[in-house]
Amino acid sequence: MKHFLLFAVFFHSILYAQIGFKTDSLTYYSKLANENIKYNNYKKALSYTQKSINYCKKNKYIGAQALQTYKLGKIYFDLNFHNDAIESFGKSIVLFNSISKKPNNNVAKAYYYISLSCAEKKKYILAESAILKAEKKK
């Protein structure tokens, strides 16, 4: 009986180890992105943030998709990829507004970062317009 129990446990562990689980979750990808940002590994952070956005799209999590798109814009902003940052912040604003038309702090922050990116690109009229929209949203 002892040998049978040992035999069963041994083979169960071997079979279990060979089963591959695909991890596909918003929390998982978001944590990986945050850890990579912490260690300045922005290439991986961009990848994991994009994976979390794709997961949100697939599962129709609009609020989470808006937050992750905003996070993607922040990463681009930190890397001085201002065109990509403006695009990501614009998408996050559309997503946030699709959830609620009420003034939203995240929308205001997205407009703020758009204005900073436009100022960096010396597009001062667009920067002023974005900051005025941010002011209205607060």
Question: In a nutshell, what does this entry contain?
Answer:
This protein has 138 residues and is mainly alpha-helical.
Strand portion, in percent? Answer: under 5%
Q: Assign an overall shape.
A: globular
- Main pleated-sheet profile: none
Which structural class fits the helix and strand makeup? mainly alpha
| Average pLDDT | 85
- Rg: 22 Å
Per DSSP E runs of 2 or more residues, the count of β-strands stands at: 0
Helix content: over 70%
Question: What would your notes on this structure say?
Answer:
The protein is mainly alpha-helical and 138 residues long. Helices cover 82% and strands 0% of the residues. It has 7 helices and no strands. Helix 4 packs parallel to helix 6. The relative contact order is 0.09.
What descriptors fit this protein?
138 residues; mainly alpha; 7 helices
Outline the fold blueprint.
Blueprint: H1 2-18, H2 26-38, H3 42-59, H4 62-78, H5 82-99, H6 105-120, H7 124-137
Helix pairs in contact: 2-3, 3-4, 4-5, 4-6, 5-6, 6-7
